[in-house]
Sequence to fold (299 residues):
Amino acid sequence: MPGDFAAHDSPLGLSGTRRLLDVSLKIALLAYLFLKSDIGTVLIPVPMMSFALAGQTDVNAFLTGFFWVFLHILAFDISNQVVGEHEDRLSKPSRPIPSGQITADDARLLQFAVVLVAILYSWRQGLLVLSVVYLAGSTAYNEGNCARWWYLKSVMGGCGYMCFLFGMITCMAHGQYPSAPTLRVIITTGLIFATTGHAQDFRDREGDAAIGRQTLPMIMPQWLARWSLSALLFMWTTVLIYMWHPPLALCMAVYSLAAVTAASFTKDHSQQADQRSFGWYLVWMSVCHMLFWKTAQDV
Fold:
């Protein structure tokens, strides 16, 4: 009888639904753990800037662009953490591979799936070339060991940031590529990240030393690496204010954050302090992004 069949089949259907839900939750948790370190550097500032620069848009276009960025940074982070498994066991044991949340082999399978989805999704959004360029650069950065040399690490990090902005802005503009003024902002942002992004390397000195990675905090005297970073923070703050003439209150806020960040980096050289200093750097970067609202109104 139909009623008997439903009664007999319902537990199986419920079990299958629960299994699917468990798998979905596990994948979501793994994605969060892989992406955790890039929430403040990519997943928050890139949507902020893209929203400012894309002009009028809608929720669907915003989410389309955010998902594009999400797929590409997730593919990068999985690759980076598979390659850096030994480093993470020393300095970041809470990450998914060293903590036993997933094996390196299974992470590779997940990476392959994410890359495939990213390529197909980019093809649908008219961003296939950008996606292939980004993923090729990601492979060179991680598997090709380009991240071992500070100059390649910095430049490629800046290029990756520009790819994120270009892709998300294009999605938010319904397939329309960024205008010339917007491209100027994207390039400026990439240059800022390329010249100051090594702020994150001070906190990773132990892990970098373990694998022989040559970052600026490793090859320069500590006082020079830290004071040169401080000078760059003030230089870029001055350049951005000169270019976009923000309100006085915002100028004071950015200069104050540059001063606090510089003081934090130069006062205490311990890696625990460097973690806090990097947090201040992220706040400085986020407030710098607010300067682009003026540009967005002019585009």
